[in-house]
Amino acid sequence: MTAFMTWLENQLAENSIFTLQTLSYYGDGLTTTVQLVFLSLVIGLIAAVPLAIGRGSKHAWIKWPIFAYTYVFRGTPLLIQLYLIYYGVVFVDGIQESWLWVILEEPFVPALIAFTLNTAAYTTEIFRGAIKSTSKGEIEAARAYGMSPRQTMRRIIIPSAFRRALPAYGNEVIFMLHASAIASVVTIMDLTGAARFVYARYYAPFDAFLFVAAIYLCLTFTILYLFRYLEKKLLAHLQPQNS
């Protein structure tokens, strides 16, 4: 590792912008971006499944609050939601004197909350549509096997809906990756924040932002490859068979 760092330092010796120090900023920003996007997607996905089921409930007191939540978070910009959560939390009475302030005073946590609530709203609607489009034949077959409604939902409807929702959910993952660029407006040193720092220090906007754009492209292509692989595996039964 020491030999590699020495070689890299020699390669960058004549470069006044992309030094080991500035590359370390990009590395830290990449780590923060991946953590923020990954955690928000995982928590949002876990929350979206029961919300999607509740969204299709026959009980108004269950489905209408969920509808209101998804309507608000899909109908307002993520940047506004981030501002409201990041700046608005300080106006909650007693929050700065409580134990929650130790957690919420870090900008990463309000950003994580905003991103999670946003992606959970979109994912809820994605899965709701996939659940709603489940073939009646699959449900009738499950009933014929003696499955209860809960077993049918767990064994038949949710796995089937997940396969159908996979392409749309892949787009949501990419959207969240791109949307994470706004996290830097609340002082988070993510990839875009690192690019802003390099730009402000060296007055080189093209170098700083083109480099970070290349990193986002690599991340996007990696996500696309993973979802194409999952679609190929999980939707193989829908592909035409070679004669």
Question: Key features?
Answer:
globular, 243 residues, mainly alpha
Detailed description of the structure:
- With 243 residues, the chain is mostly helical.
- Helix content is 76%, strand content 0%.
- Helix 2 (20-55) packs antiparallel against helix 3 (60-75).
- The mean pLDDT is 85.
Shape: globular
What percentage of amino acids are in beta strands? under 5%
What structural class should be given to the helix and strand makeup? mainly alpha
The number of strands is 0
Radius of gyration: 22 Å
Helix content: over 70%
User: Mean pLDDT, as a whole number?
Assistant: 85
Order of helices and strands: HHHHHHHHHH
Low-confidence stretches: none
Report the end-to-end length measured between terminal Cα atoms.
53 Å
Main sheet summary: none
The number of helical elements comes to 10
Put the structure in a nutshell.
With 243 residues, the chain is mainly α.
Any chance you could write out the topology, listing elements then pairs?
Blueprint: H1 2-11, H2 20-55, H3 60-75, H4 78-88, H5 100-104, H6 108-132, H7 136-144, H8 149-179, H9 191-202, H10 205-234
Helix pairs in contact: 2-3, 2-6, 2-8, 2-9, 3-6, 4-6, 6-8, 7-8, 8-10, 9-10
